[in-house]
Amino acid sequence: SQKEKIVSDMEKSSATRKDLTEAIEGRQQILEEKKAQENICQTESVDLQVEISNIRQRDAFLQQNLDRLHEELEKILEEKRALQEGIHVSKEDILRKEDNLAAVREGIERAADEIAKLQADLADLQTEKEALLTSNRSFFDKREELSEKISLLDKECYRLNSQMERLQEQREAQIGYMWEEYELTFSSAQQMRNESCGNLNDLKKKSRQLKEEIRELGSVNVNAIEEYKETSERYGFLKTQRDDLVSAEKTLLGIIAELDEGMRRQFTEKFDRIKVEFDKAFKELFGGGKGTLELVEEEDVLDAGIRIISQPPGKKLQNMMQLSGGEKALTAIALLFAIQNLKPSPFCLLDEIEAALDDSNVGRFAGYLHKLTKNTQFIMITHRRGTMAAADRLYGITMQEKGVSTLVSVNLIEDDLDE
């Protein structure tokens, strides 16, 4: 029963399956038809979308064209308005030009009338021209005749001018001869003219007699009066200058005498003071002795020579020229310092004046020089040790390398203060 039931169920299942298969096949066929319709619809949808896109593009293009056409329409309208205005202006220009044309036509008509008149006048002038040409030909003939006459007159004038020049030369020669022979000008000769003297031979004879008398008188200087005036004026001028020079000479001689007197007095005073200062400086530099100055016996102290007498310690009084080289140098230094003490100068440069001294004298020289620094600043050029030891500052030049000079300075005052 189960088998039968199963078989029955299987038969039912087969029938059901068959029905389902047939239903599936029907549904499958419907599905295929639907898919075919779907494909068709999709194709149509794509076509529609393409068509819609084309329509939108055409719409945009048409819109652009519409906008462009609107703009062109506005431009055309503006051009139309401008053309209408231009037409209006052109109409006015046409009217104005027509008026001008009418005026030009009237001018042409007037010009034609004037041309006709001018042609008539030209004909008259042509007739007058022919008449003038005829008269000109006769005028040219007359002019040629006159030119010939003028040429002849020019030749005659040239001849007369030449003759006048010769007469003028003769006249000037006669005037020169009259001045050279008689020292008379033409005007003065006319004033001396005498109508009663008509015989030329008598006049020549009288002239020779007068010349002989003049020669017997000798040479006569006709410019003597003028020369006397010039010489007198020059004499007065030179005499005035001479008087001025004599007066100036007297004045200058008086001034020179006063200066000489003042110089003698001042020289005598200063010489006495220098003599005292020389003795003091001599004693300090030599450590004793005596030094004096004497004038060579002369009438005038300004022209007198000076004799230097020195007596170093332990020696007799003698002339400076009899001393040794060092003594001469020290005596000259004493004289220099004597003059310096008389009227100290603020600045003094000494160039190796103690080179000939020995060491002891150099020490006394340096000590004495140091006393004078109260009123005078001294710069010494020296190689002596004693002088350098007494200096306040030392400056030297050294060459540590070949061709390179170096300045070296030492301040001895600061060293003394430090000590």
Description:
It contains 8 helices and 7 strands; from the N terminus they run ααααβββαβαβαββα. It is mainly alpha-helical. Helix content is 74%, strand content 10%. The protein is flat, with a radius of gyration of 76 Å. It has helices at 2-182, 186-191, 200-217, 224-286, 325-342, 359-371, 385-389, 412-418; strands at 290-295, 306-311, 318-319, 347-351, 377-381, 393-401, 404-411. The strands form 3 sheets. The protein has a 3-stranded antiparallel β-sheet, with helices on one face. A two-stranded parallel sheet has the order 4-5.
Largest sheet: 3 strands, antiparallel
What would you call the structural class? Answer: mainly alpha
Q: What is the quaternary state of this protein?
A: single chain
Encode the helix/strand succession as letters. HHHHEEEHEHEHEEH
Low-pLDDT runs of 5+ residues are none
